[in-house]
């Protein structure tokens, strides 16, 4: 038998036979539901045979015949009611299990998030793409009409989305573009590191989304529930349908705070903080100052498994905090520990010697192969899973006075369960053209793209003109093909006033923007700090988000 679990109380399977009932009883099933009409196939036992065998084993059997490919709304409602009544756990079956999974999902629509329904079915080997609109419409069949149509639809109003919209309009000012994003505020996230060090005020990193949207762009303030690339449609919450000619997907990534037991409950309390959230970055600075006033303590800085946005950000928080304790005269009484799931300090070796100089200067303990797996805030204890070279793993407990935690990160659920996703859940794209290999009118950029470059705002700044050019070329409005080389930049703030400016492309090849005599990115630089503090914020707000491609013009072939 091929039994596949949907929930704790419901599993599905292909057709079963009467002799299987004893096995099912041994597995603990208390009820079964047959969704095949009798006589659907020549090799199919009748429900009466199944029912008699079930009764002999003490299993409740119900017959809800459903014609293949014709699951009706009322049948889904009836299955939901049946599930409320039957003893649990339940096994539902049909020819392949698809009908049973479809009935379950439709009965749960509106009660469970759509991505969760799609993901549970996918893990059970069932593709529910054909009923996505019904699921988004609360399990009911919606009218097959579009609420809106646009030439270009951009999903995501973050750095990548606004930049690509502006780059498109800079090339074709009359292009019909819609941006879909439910947020009301747009954040300059690279600035949160400096907020956490008391250098920027939080307000310097936030503006209303309406104020940064390019003039003429339609803003659809809603969340995306599903993608239907075969129908050139995006489904919004409430089952509104937006059709497109070209689609750009850039909703960023998802911070999975709940993946670490105890972390979400203690954020902002008990010395636990993170620069990865707007409201917590100021708390980081408060905790750094509090530790200095206490005259020392233990500070833990964590980094989860890759990929994460701005892979250097966990270290930036650590170096700036250590520098603040040095200036306060308490550094020698602060035990600083860097606990990273990765095997090295930084993925591009050329920058490691400069970083190690500061690790030694600040007396930082390096703990590679350690992943944060639990936090007990009131007890001030963090638990790590340590991976050993021989393949073993052990649990390590560390006490802390300050914990700067970085959560695991993944593609948004709506992307991960969509037809656009690659095997790891990110949007599948050609790494050079950023075009989807199977859906030729779909592009992706920014953190959600399934590319191997560093997930940074600098990468999105380089990617946006590439997507803009190639999208317009696909529409016949541009010539040639633009190519992205994997450029990413990570200004590593090693102390207040100095930065190691890491710039690199695919494969870790160095890609400096300035001559070495001006800024040597492998060494700490005051000029690089000036760029980070004074130049990059206006370059972001007035350059990147306005379609001005300074140092980002794409090369075409």
TrEMBL record:
Coiled coil: none annotated. CDD domains: PTP-bact. It comes from the Bacteria. Keywords: FAD, Flavoprotein, Oxidoreductase, Quinone, Transit peptide. Residues 151-274 form the FAD/NAD(P)-binding domain. Pfam families: BLH_phosphatase, Pyr_redox_2. The keyword Amino-acid biosynthesis does not apply. Residues 2-110 form the Beta-lactamase hydrolase-like protein phosphatase-like domain. GO terms for molecular function: FAD binding; hydrolase activity; quinone binding; sulfide:quinone oxidoreductase activity. SUPFAM superfamilies: (Phosphotyrosine protein) phosphatases II, FAD/NAD(P)-binding domain. The keyword Cytoplasm does not apply. Its cofactor is FAD. GO terms for biological process: sulfide oxidation, using sulfide:quinone oxidoreductase. Gene3D superfamilies: FAD/NAD(P)-binding domain, Protein tyrosine phosphatase superfamily. NCBIfam families: TIGR01244 family sulfur transferase (TIGR01244). This is Oxidoreductase.
